[in-house]
Each structure stands twice: as C-alpha cells, then as structure tokens.
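Entry type: protein chain
Record version: 2
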Amino acid sequence: MNRKKLIGAYAIAVTLIASSCSDKKQDTVQADVPEVVKVQTVTASIRDVDHAGTFTATVEAEIVNNIAPQQPVRIKRISAEVGDHVKKGQILVEMDAANLNQAKLKLENDKIDFERVDELYKVGGIAKSVWDGKKMAYELSKETYENLLENTILRSPISGIITKRNYDIGDMYNGMAPIYVVEQIQPVKVKVNVSEALFTKVKKGMEVTVTLDVYGDEKFKGVVTLIHPSIDPATHTFPVEIRIDNKNERVLPGMFARVTLNYGSAESIVLPDRAILKQTGSGDRYVYICKNGVANYRKVDIGRRIGDEYEIVSGLKKGDVVAVTGQNRLNDGIQVEVTSINK
C-alpha cells in the first residue's frame, strides 16, 4: 500500500470514530430527558350524595299454611289445584268421615244423657258427682267431634294461592307431606341481613326500593315492617323484614330480590369512574394526583356508584386534581403535562 492510500484510510477511520462518539453523546443526552405524559384531569368536588346500601334476598310469602289432618286418613275429595286462588274458610279437602260419624253418634248420646241428669239434678233427684260425670263426658265428646270435624273437612285458614298439592283422591294421608300448601302473596315479604353499623339508621316504616332479576331494572316499593332487636355475634348483622303490597301478584315467592335502603344524604367527594383504576391482583382502587407537573399514586376507598361516577369514601380531598386520561402510561413520580382540566 502506497503512502497516499494509507493517509486516506486513516482519515476515513478518524471520521467514523468521531461520528460514532457524536451519536453516543446525542443518545445519552436524549436518554437523560425524562418522559412527559400528556393527561387530562378532573378536579375532585363535593356534593350531596344519597347514602344507601343494597342487599340481596329471596322473596317469601307473607304466610305459609300446610293443609293436613292430624291422623292418617284416606282422602275422599279434593277441591283445588295448584295455582288456584282460594278464600279464607274455603273447603279444600274432605277426608273419610267414618270416625267423624262415630264421634257424632257418641256426642248425640252423651248430650241426651247429660240433659236427662241435668233435669234430675235441678230437682235434687241425683247427686252432684253424677251430674259432674255426665257433664264431663258430654263436653269431652263435643270436643272430640269438633276436632274430628276440623280434621275431616279441611278449610283454608287464609286467602291465598295453592302452591303445592302432594296427594290425589283415594290416597291415604301418611304424614310425610301436607296435602296442600297455601301461601298468602298479597303482600309478600323480603328478609335481609343488615350490618350492625346501620342499626340506628334503619327505621320501621322506612320506604325501600326493590328490584327483581326477572324484571330487570323495574323498581317495586317496599316498607320496613320489622327490625329484629338483636345482633348476630357471628356475622354482626341484624334481620330486617320488608313488605311489598303485591296487589297485582307479579312478585312471587322464590324470586331473587335486591333491596336498596336509603339512609339520607351527606356531602361526599365524587369522581368519574374513568379516573379510578383497579390494582391488578387485588381489590384496591387508586388514582393519580397531578400536582406541580408530577403524577402521584394515591390509593382510594370507593362507596356507591352514581351513574358514571363513584363516591370517594377516603383518600382524596376537595380540590385534588386527578388524571382521567393517559393513566396506562403513568407511574408514581412521572412528569405530566395537563392538556385540559374539567372543573
């Protein structure tokens, strides 16, 4: 290689080395410039918020009656089917009347005997002990007959609807299940277990809102009718009963219900739901507070959802500026540029 070519190669190498050092210096400068994330924010505000709690329960009939005789007897006649509406006092079942007929004959004989000795006793013809014996026999026969009559001719003790029938005509009632189940569904009731922290806030006569999964968001009116006066030491809850008038009988026993109890209103901080993030792997919620161009992680506790907003129970104060966009690029301490603020 001649001298002229050697000098040319040396010059090229020096140029490449200089260029490489210049690029590295530029990269270093660029790496030292911190990332600035553009975000939009909202200012935490305070307003009156209804304080309420929602509880789940199953609808129950106001009264449930099992229709059955006291003793095993053959069923002679049945008068209603499942789904039928029945009136209080309506005859539902007639059992075999053999025992009833025998009791009736004995009652009639005992009545005649008592009336005869009663006349004699009035004129002093017999001792009082004889009169007492006949009177007792007559009263016992009368009681036996009335009991058998009640268990032979079975009537509905309430106005309601037949929800079960477990026997047919000619079956022998065996005591394993009632012949009929009659339920009063005007009104119906719902029982919920409420946290003891709310014991002083729930009042008898308080109106509540009830929704049923089968009817979507349709609301039904309920009234608190009973507050149990004791707290369960295991769950720290107390039972509350709610009545729904149910005049159209659309609410049926067994339906799944959600009951909302409203305890009045109080001032609370609210934020749009898009400002609140959920911590991966836990139920914690957090936001990013933007102050002096820096984003700061802040854990918050949320309360009720109100439309597209959440009540903030703790973690924020009035006036805090919270990011509502760009949170997926934020970390604690990262620099931010606020592009717009929603008051």
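Comment: Helices lie at 3-32, 98-122, 128-152.
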